[in-house]
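Q: How would the structure tokens look for this protein?
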Amino acid sequence: MDIAHQLAEEVRNALGETPRVIVGIAGEPGAGKSTLAGQTQLILEQAGFKTAVVPMDGYHLANEVLESLARRDRKGAIDTFDASGYLSMLRRLRSDASDTVYAPLYDRDAGHGVAGAIPVASDCRVILTEGNYLLDGDAPWNEAAGLLDAIWFVQIDPLVRRERLVARHIASGKDPDFAEYWVDNVDEANARRIRACAAKADRIVDPG
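A: Here is the predicted structure in token form.
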């Protein structure tokens, strides 16, 4: 059984009579969090469970805001996200299943979030939320774990992860040399912080 099927099976077992289950997928940049979330969503929906994927990346601060804070040159660091906004969304998803919640989506091509792009209907029983800092111990991020039913940590070969990141940055328009510089000096600094929290996860997985 592959990792996506394992996660889907765990979610199905956790549902029972519970109206809604929220599972976090954490991991370093380029580890494959979005891919795992998408595969798991497909499996669950094929089994009849209405599922939504709500990425933490939708809460990136706008580039203009990052420039005003002198943080644009390290976009992706923990203080370049609207942590309180993300946590508020999780609380709504956790406590209020009577209405549709509209979550933001991060547009990689445009480089910014799109408000209200992901509708989570009141009858959505499974929510998968993926992001870098779900296990971080600093406030307010340390509140995230208490709002989730489980957190899986995705960990893959670091060389493969680096290759993915460089390719991603080049695809988004960065010069190849600058893409490698960004990965080595920005992404990897974030990855070290994220990796240090892996032991807090309910399970560490390598999707291969």
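The helical segments are 3-15, 33-46, 63-68, 83-95, 158-171, 176-195.

The chain has a mean pLDDT of 93.

Upvote if useful.
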